[in-house]
Amino acid sequence: MAPKIRDWTAKFNFGGPRNANALIGVCIHTTENDPSTPAENVAQYQLDSESGSYHTLADRQGILRENTADWITWSTGNKGNNLLMHLSFVARAAMTRSQWLAEDAMLRNGAWEVAQWCKRFGWPVKQVSVSGLPGITTHDSTRAWGSTDHTDPGKNFPWDVFLRYINEEIAGQSAPTAQIEDVMATDFNSKTNAADGTEHTYGQLLRYTDGRVFKMESETLPRLEKKLDEILEVLKNAK
Q1: Are residues 116 and 234 located together in one domain of the fold?
Q2: pLDDT tens-place string over residues 92-105
Q3: 89 φ/ψ angles, rounded to the nearest 5 degrees
Q4: Number of other residues whose CB lies within 10 A of the CB of residue 119
């Protein structure tokens, strides 16, 4: 089942554009937070400090999208940032296998997102080192490219379970509609600029437009109609 999606892509303005057609795989991370931490807390810290970013965070409640596929994140060394999609679990690399398996909802949420990427780009569902890409690699493996010394998601990450969940999602029937936090939100995997210069995803601009139309139909027009009726009544009584 599709997880709850929180779309924060319009908030992350640091980084820069990149060619999504040049991407070669997925990189898995941990945020080094307790698994009970909401993804919003991690994302807000990253926004406040501009100390890092991912494409997607996965927590117990669902996923939080920070950046779209055509946007460079600050996840690992420059090569990895340019060539990979980055998903980070709100968890710790030091967790045991048992602790990871206790976070089944989080694993499934992350697997759902990675399945969307693998389907979109045609990547195989297999764990690989960076030399074996395309596929799914780790922050630890990107050390081979330099500019990073991290070792997440850790030696006990349950790859067998995670990859099985990805394959099950890909092999399954079309997934139910994702639970989007904001009405009519959707991810068009690209960013654009609004008329006021503010950066938004296409989905957010559509949501804003639909919301304004809905408000006009449900609030403004009835008020105008009532006012016209009052004016007509006054004119009628004036005769």
Answers
A1: no
A2: 999 999 999 999 99
A3: -85, 140
A4: 13
Q: Which of 16, 14, 10 is nearest to 48 (CA)?
A: 14
Q: For 110-129, how does the pLDDT look when each residue is reduced to its tens digit (9 = 90+)?
A: 999 999 999 999 999 999 99
Among the listed residues 227, 185, 213, the one whose alpha carbon sits nearest the alpha carbon of residue 10: 185
What domain range is 223 assigned to? 200-238
Domain count, the chain: 2
Q: Does residue 27 form part of some domain?
A: yes
Residue 115 within any structural domain of the chain: yes
Q: Which amino acid is at 82?
A: N
Q: pTM here?
A: 0.75
Q: Which structure tokens are listed for 94?
A: 């030091």
With a CB cutoff of 8 Å and minimum separation 6, the contacts of 139 are 27, 28, 29, 75, 76, 80, 148, 150, 151, 152, 153
Give yes or no for a contact between 14 and 190, defined as CB atoms under 8 angstroms apart.
no
Same-domain check for residues 160 and 226:
no
91 and 208 together in one domain: no
Nearest to 128 by CA among 189, 180, 84: 84
Residues 119 and 15 in one domain: yes
Q: What are the C-alpha distances in Å from 148 to residues 54, 75, 143, 205?
A: 15, 9, 5, 36
Flag whether 171 is in a domain.
yes
